[in-house]
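Moderator note: this is an archived Q&A kept for reference. The question asked for a predicted structure of one protein chain; the sequence and the answer are reproduced below.
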Amino acid sequence: MPRSVRFDEFGSREVLHLIETARPWPGAGQLVVRVMAAGLNAIDAKAFQDERVAARFGVTTPSGLGQDFAGFVEEVGDGVTGFTVGEAVFGSVPFATFADFVVVHADGAVLHKPDPLTFEVAGSLATVGRTAMATTASLRLREHDTVLVSAVAGGVGVLAAQLAVRAGATVIGTASEVHHDYLEGLGVVPVTYGDGLADRIRDVLDGDRITAVLDNHGAETIEAALELGVPVDRINTIAAFGPAAHGARTVGGSAAGNAELAEIAAMLAEDECLLPIDSIFPIERVAEAFARLEAGHVRGKIVLVTD
């Protein structure tokens, strides 16, 4: 029987359970995809832990979980063109992808998977890829820029940092020390986050100045940026809202679509940038996967696989 991750109440990761479900069938214009891999996102943890956050996304219990997927087309509905049974695809469907099968509209967020991409990378890409593309584009980075990227070892941060490097910018990124050597290999100047952040950034600037900020961490980053004299209209945040954002831009993944997702997928397929996979868990160990996410210091993405 097909399986799906569900939660029936809000709480810690112990509320997650794997249930047997009926096999889905496509409606007109839809595909059924056999999911091979699905990446975890921060919103997944927030959705089952916090009813208020879930409500903002229209989530009520019982609910599925997972945003991103990669797999094979299992069935096509009437009127579908451009996809055939057996093709490898990837994309996103909100709160549904931690499952053996997912139903997606053929004209929605689903693309053919480039052959060089592993299912683990493709199944982790849609949310962070669109967000990284949108956030970096919002600041129009150029060679004269020195950009601060917070939480730079995470899924969005690591992609955004590489996009900024490709744009010619100098990139300084906040991360725990365990990631520093890896980040230096990507062309990022790493600094440790926490108290005294602005001073540590000054130490590595060597007389230069921060001209733009991509915040994936929260108010601490924005406050350090303002202390360093970064204009608020050159700060984009996906992690601080309301007063904590201090008037910064809040451009996120919704500002990018399939074209941008296809573009970054092509970069990854051609080894022009990397999306590291931190760890892989079988779907029946979903609670352990979220324990790894909650432990922090994640490099790139955590992935669930169905086989």
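Archived answer notes: DSSP finds ten helices and 14 strands in the chain.
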